Amino acid sequence: GLFGTIGAVFYYRFKFKALGDLLIFLVYGPSIMLGTGYVMLGHFDWLLLFVSFPMAFITVNVLHANNTRDIRSDRYAEIKTYAMLIGMKASVIHYYLLTILAYLSIIVMVVLNILPITAFITLITVPVAYKNCKAMSQITEEDVTPINELDKGTAQLQLMFSASLSLALILAILI
After folding, report:
1. What does the pLDDT look like over 54-104, one tens digit per residue?
2. Spatial separation of the C-alpha atoms in residues 62 and 52, rounded to whole Å
3. Measured in whole angstroms, how far is the alpha carbon of residue 101 from the centre of its chain?
4. Are 29 and 44 in contact (CB under 8 A)?
5. How many CB atoms lie within 10 A of CB 147?
6. Helix (H) and strand (E) counts for the chain?
7. Residue 157: Cβ within 10 Å count
8. Which of 1, 84, 114, 139 could be disulfide-bonded to 109 (CB atoms 3.0-4.6 Å)?
9. b/e per residue, 129-146, with b = 16+ CB within 10 A?
10. How far is Cα of residue 8 from the mean position of the Cα atoms in its chain?
11. What is the domain range of residue 28?
12. Cβ distance 156 to 117 under 8 Å?
C-alpha cells in the first residue's frame, strides 16, 4: 500500500524522468497483486508476481499509447517519457512487445500449471489486441492521428482481458 501511495503521489516526478512506465508496471502489477495476496493469505505467494505480469503489460501499454501520441506536446512541455526517449519506430515495437508478452505469459503460465487451462479464455481478446497493434503500426513521425484513441482502445482491451481472466479463474474453481 505504501509503495502504491508513493507511486501515485510522486508519479509526475517519475514521468518527467522517463520512469513513468516502469512505475506504472510495478504499482499496477506486482505491488497490487502481492499486496492483495498478502492480505488474503497472510503471507507472500511469489507465484502471484508472475500472475501480475499480463495485466501489468497491458496497463503499461495504455500509458505507452498515450505517451507515444503525445511525444511532440510532451517535448514542448519539457516532459521526458520513455516513448520520447526511444522514438516513434521503437515505440511501435514496444507496444507490440508488451501486447505479445501479455498473451505469451498467459500461455507460459498455463503450461507451467501456474494458471488453470481455463486461462486460455483470455485469447478471445486477441482480435482487439490485433486491432490496437494495427492502429499503432500506422503512425509516422508526422502523423500520430491513427492512435488518437489508442489509449482508450488499450484500456478497453485491459477491461476485456482482465474480465476474461477473472472469468477463467472462477470457472476453474467451479469445474
Report:
1. 999 999 999 999 999 999 998 888 888 999 999 999 999 999 999 999 999
2. 16
3. 10
4. no
5. 24
6. 9, 0
7. 23
8. 114
9. beebbebbeebeeeebee
10. 17
11. 2-174
12. no
- What's the full length of the chain, in residues? 175
Q: What is the pLDDT of residues 9-67, one digit of tens each?
A: 877 777 778 888 888 888 888 888 888 888 999 988 888 889 999 999 999 999 999 99
Closest alpha carbon to 165 in 46, 58, 62: 58
Domain count for the chain, please give it. 1
CA 106, CA 112: separation in Å to the nearest integer? Answer: 10
Residues near 108 by beta carbon (within 8 Å), at least 6 away in sequence: none
Q: Is the pTM of this model over 0.85?
A: yes
Q: Amino acid identity, residue 17?
A: K
Which run of H or E residues covers position 168? helix 150-174
Residue 109 corresponds to which amino acid? Answer: M
Amino acid at 167: L
Please provide residue 78's backbone torsions phi and psi, each rounded to the nearest 5 degrees. 60, 35
Backbone torsions φ then ψ of 15, nearest 5 degrees = -60, -40
Which residue type occupies 5?
A: T
Question: What is the C-alpha separation between 149 and 81, in angstroms, rounded?
Answer: 19
